[in-house]
Structure formats: C-alpha cells, structure tokens
Design goal:
Layout (H helix, E strand, L loop, with lengths): L1 H26 L8 E5 L6 H17 L3 E5 L6 H8 L7 E5 L2 H8 L11 E16 L8 H10 L5 E4 L5 H13 L4 E4 L3 H9 L5 E5 L4 H6 L3 E5 L25 E9 L4 H15 L2 H9 L3 E2 L4 H22 L6
Parallel strand pairs: 1-2, 1-3, 5-6, 5-7
Antiparallel strand pairs: 3-9, 4-7, 4-8, 4-9, 4-10
Helix pairs in contact: 2-9, 4-11, 6-11
Length: 328
C-alpha cells in the first residue's frame, strides 16, 4: 500500500512538473510569434489610418510578422479605443489613435475607458499643426488684424472647423479666449467642406489641419494667418506661429500615437518602442509622413505619457471655459 501511495505521489509530482514546464515554455514564446492587430478607431483612408498603414508596413518587415489594420469606427473614436482597453495585454492588440484619446475625456461625460490607467504608451509617432486662414480679399493680413476687426465688430465674424470637438475647433475656441473676442463657430463635416465654406465666402475665417490647405496657401487661393505648431512649418517658412503672433504658449497640434493595453509585459513594450522608433525614422516613412502633412516625432513612452496628461487637462479646462457641452 505504501509503495502504491508513493508511486501515486511521484506520478502526481511528475505531472505537475511537466505541466509547469509546458506553461513556462508557452509563456516564454518569443514575441511576436503571430499576427499583430493594430486597431484604428477611424475610417479607412483618413489621416490617422494612412499613418497607421505606413507604420504597419514598416513593422511587418522589422518584426517578421503580419501587422493588420482593424478600423473600429464609432462614437468619436471611443468604440475602437474601448475595444483595445479591454483586450488581452499581450502585445498582439495595439491602438493607433489620434488626439481623440486626449480630447474625448473633456467632451464625453461617461467614457468606457480611462486613457491613463487602461493603456501603456508606446510612442507619439507624428504630429501636425492647424492653420488659421482667410480669403485674400478679406483685408485681414495677420492675427493682429483679425483680432482688431473682431473687437471692432463683435459677434459679426464666424469661423469654420471640421466639426465640434476636433482640434481645429478647439484651436478657434482657444483663440477666442486668449484674444478676448467673440466670433461664431460654424461646424462642418470635415476639413474639405470647412475650407470650401471659407473659399466661397460663407465664413470669414477657417481653422483646419494644415496639410490639405497647404496647396491653396501656396497658390494664393487663401491667405494663412498663422500655424499652431511650436515652430514654423518647414514648407511654409513665411507663415508665423501663433506664438510669434503675440500668444505665448499657443500650441495646438494633432498627434498620432501608438498604445498597448495596460499590463503588457515590459519586455514586449520595450521591443515595440525600439521597432516603432526605428520604423518611423526610415527615409520612406519620413517622406510619406511629410506627404500627408505630418512631421515625425517617434518619441519615448515617457514623453507620450507627459503629453497625454497635459493635453487631457488642457482640453478639459478649455471645454469648461468655452462652455462646450460634453456628450453622454
């Protein structure tokens, strides 16, 4: 009996060791060993999706695994962002998002995710300024002229943006607060319609992302008053920044960044950071980003964390002061 009992104990111990060893082998499988899904919470063909595909192509080559794009669209980006927040933190489900992850906490009363607690930042990949512009026949040649005209004629000017809650809209509201002027916001469904409204004379001012407007600026179809980056845009060296126009610290940029769910193993995060930074510094990635109006950042997780905190607090403050109503 004792012999049989001893054999049972030894057999059970052997099974435990084998099971433990098998689990360890499985857990230590090198990353990545299968397809990576990169969730983009915006439609295919849009600016964020385009940059995501540039990155996905580069990562596919450097990591040796397929990287597929999954466009999960809805609720101002919240649908796709929330999906990744609930995903398994193993590095195989990534979030490629725009500034929406920092803007939405100020615009939605009840988010299905926490942008700080639910994600581990990988990198801010690219960013781009907005541009404030008018018609050439407006008689407005600078931000100073615009402010003077708005103060002399309160509530008579209006400005177009690609929609409520976009960075372009928030740029216009920040200008109103900083300059102490009252101009009416007219939201459109995208930067194209907002630009067309300005060109046709329906509105007196427009605030949109720089890239699609740059050809119109260079052709003289519209007059740019200022860009909203921290420095002048490389291909429009004659256009001043808002800072140079008399508004210290006035920076309003749209960024694209990569995140993974919180709890992803540190070694996986480190590997992703390394490959993502290298991918975005490749000459073909730099040229592609410039083509679509972005400049490369390829920053660190720490830099992205600091920016995310600052952007969230800044947007919440602006939304409160401007009286923008949060959605449920």
């Amino acid at each position: 009996m004792r012999s049989r009992s001893a054999l049972v104990v030894l057999f059970a111990a052997a099974i435990t060791i084998l099971a433990s060893g098998g689990s360890k082998v499985h857990a230590q499988a090198p990353y990545p060993s299968r397809t990576i899904m990169m969730v983009v919470p915006f439609p295919a063909g849009g600016p964020t999706d385009i940059i995501a595909r540039i990155l996905a192509s580069a990562l596919q080559q450097s990591l040796g695994q397929n990287v597929i794009i999954d466009n999960r669209v809805g609720a101002g980006g919240n649908l796709g962002i929330a999906y990744v927040a609930r995903a398994n933190p193993d590095g195989y489900t990534l979030l490629f998002t725009s500034t929406a992850i920092a803007v939405n906490p100020g615009l939605f009363a009840n988010l299905p995710y926490d942008p700080i607690k639910d994600f581990a930042p990988i990198s801010e990949l690219v960013n781009a300024p907005n541009v404030l512009f008018v018609r050439p026949d407006s008689g407005i040649n600078s931000i100073g002229d615009l402010v003077a005209k708005a103060k002399a004629n309160p509530n008579t000017l209006n400005y177009a943006s690609p929609g409520v809650g976009t960075k372009s809209h928030l740029t216009g509201e920040l200008l109103k607060l900083r300059a102490g002027i009252s101009i009416q916001h007219i939201p459109y469904r995208g930067g194209g319609p907002a630009t067309q409204a300005l060109v046709s004379g329906t509105v007196q001012l427009a605030s949109v992302a720089l890239a699609p407007v740059e050809p119109l600026i260079k052709s003289g179809t519209v007059r740019a008053l200022a860009v909203t980056g921290s420095t002048r845009w490389y291909s429009l060296p004659d256009i001043p920044t808002m800072i140079e126009s008399g508004f210290p610290g006035f920076v309003s940029e749209t960024f694209n960044a990569l995140f993974t769910p919180a709890g992803t193993p540190p070694e996986t995060v480190s590997l992703l950071v390394k490959h993502v930074q290298e991918a975005m510094k490749r000459p073909d990635a730099i040229e592609a980003a410039k083509k679509f109006g972005y400049q490369i950042v390829a920053g660190s997780p720490e830099q992205m964390t600091a920016r995310l905190h600052a952007e969230i607090e800044g947007v919440k403050e602006l939304v409160a002061k401007a009286g923008i109503k949060a959605e449920n």
